[in-house]
Amino acid sequence: MSDAPKLIVSHAPFLHGGGSIVVRNGQVLLALIPAAICGMLRWGVPALAVIALSVSSAMAWELIFNRISRRPVTIGDGNAASLGLVLALVLPATVPWWMVVAGTFLAVVIGKEIYGGIGANPFNPVVVSVAILGISWKGYMDFDAMLLTYDPGFVMMEPLTAAKAFGTEAVARFSAFDLLMGRQAGAIGAPFGFWLIVGGIYLVACGVVRWEIPASFLAAVALVAAAFHLSNPQLYAGPMFHLLTGYTLIGAFFLAPEDSGSPVNFWPMLIYGGAGGLMTVLIRNIGAYPDGVIYAVLVINLINPLVDKIRPKALGRAA
Amino acid sequence: MFRRFFRRNSPPRFSYQRLIAEIATALPAFPGRWILFCDHPLDRSDRLRLKPGDRVATGGKLVPFIDSPAYVIAPATGVITAIEPFLGDFGRRLTRIDLRTDGPETIDPGFTEAAAEVSIETLRAWAGDLPGGLDPTALTPPDQPIETLLVSAVEADLLSVSAQYVLKTRTDAVRQGIEILRQVTGAKRVILAVGRESFQGLGGHLHAEIRAVSGIYPASAPALMVKELLGRQVPAGAPLAKLGLAVVSVEAAASLGRSFAEKRLALEKIVTVVDRDGRRSLVTVRVGTPVAEIFEALGIRLGAGDRLIAGGPMAGACLFTDDHPVRPDTHCLLVQDPAAVTHCSSDPCINCGECVRICPTHVPINMLVRLLETGKYDIAADEYDLWSCVDCGLCSYVCPARIPIFQYIRLAKHELALRQVAETENV
Ligand code: SF4
Ligand code: SF4
Asked: Which of B57, B86, B158, B339 has the most CB atoms around its CB within 10 Å?
């Protein structure tokens, strides 16, 4: 019948929940905006410059790599932008511009694209990038050295470094509330615990972050830190301190739960998050580095494929 | 646009549609033409027993091929106008027979004679095309008798209310059908599975255990129903008969009951029709009625870019034209506006795990999809539980990467089944 209207033919299901990668990345960006604004207010124009450069260069690298590898252009999915923003928030405000560009290159190209792009990277791209930056240009990632010029009216000593060097006495001056509100030396956005928690809860509520991962990560940090603290209160700071300093909160809500490198089943998520929290405090307290989040996330990304094998038996599967 | 940032991406909990008293019912005019599909390829026309111009009587059995017992039941009295090959889903080859109503209705005596004997042979010979979709071969598996028979009055898909309507309006026929099923299968136990919400008000005169199942999609999937009601797991990929079980739709039971009670094959089928604005009607039509005739009766006009779906929104199939019949298992017809169509994307899996958490059968879809995309069907089946899937489509619904996961799964199952056929034939 030639007068019949042309129908669309496609396959089931004919409904879709409406979720999309763009929306998810948009939600991540939105969740980070409060911390980013706090960072800009605290550290001023240099922070703004780092954030702007990081987001734009991350997108540029993705575009360049898309072109070189002759693959569809994917910057529209927002993933490069959100990687760039997360990266900016864990860098010091005074980091030189070329390091930001190198960092986004490491994150986007080395951390993600060479594996085949979004969803294929075994490690969190930002974590890969920060780990390499930290090894390559140690001095520029040292918050105390980088933030010398600032005098915001509170103790300008990176709390974790202080605790590592001088024991708990040195950090007794930090009140938990000050730490929560970001009155501490540190990266552009990572110190603003309160806003990171707000953003994290928003992401959990949207279903972008599975609650199991941040919850188990933070619980493990608290438990292990408490155990250390009880064993030697002079040497090891308490759980509150560990929860509110360094990359703990940004790690728990934004680094560890990154989709590609994290498990999707219930028990594996708890094991994964728990292992991350445990490693974090172990590295901080007995390892060589003041902060352990970055390496902890690398380690749990590594064990992810293994732990995610623990899954419920499918219906009708024999044994 | 902004609101999108504040809504939860998942997970949905779909309740089946409940039958409400106010639903519009319609009885379209008796059509002048009919379309039938015979499940046998038409590759050699010289093996045809029927030809255009042959006369058929209502309820008559048409066996189109000399060398195949495949048959269809004529829904009306008239003349065959065409016999053509037809390509169905996944390249399935069928034969399409067109009829034109002609002359006063005469009833074919074939079934009336056969109905004197209630036996599985009679069912095999006559009930393969019954409204509601009955597979007589599944009722008497060769190596094991059916112990427990499940009659499902749970809707097959979202939006449809056909099964509930059948149960409500044809209770007697359902009871008679259950008796016949009990008789031919020898099943000791017959369970009528009803959605929890419509459980109330069902009497004990149905001669079956009446059990409520969850009203949340996809509770009607046979393997899930068996698990919920009997606490048993059907081995992945195996037929229910392996456990001595069979599932029959409530409409098939009603058609069976009515056929034997009236000694005349039941031809009428209940179809839920949902228009693009969600307006729902129930129509009673004979199997073989062209969709176009139903739409005309209901005043539904298809426009360019619409989707026309036979079956429900989650697991149905698109039709490319309304010149297509209501088939024995067409419980629902759905028109979807172009604006409601969400397109698939070519994005890769981002490993978000939404699919894994929604899957009612715990299939590790995030892993499975990687294998299916690269055609590694054997590994998918052996290690990643492809055959545990009950074809509900929820994984595709939630996937933010909009991967057509469900279609990959169906394709994989289809390919594996073809391979199996090829292997058995080559032995
Ligand atoms: S794999 Fe998808 S279609 Fe199959 S049962 Fe799971 S959610 Fe449903
Ligand atoms: S297949 Fe889709 S829903 Fe499942 S993990 Fe991948 S992106 Fe998420």
From this structure: B158
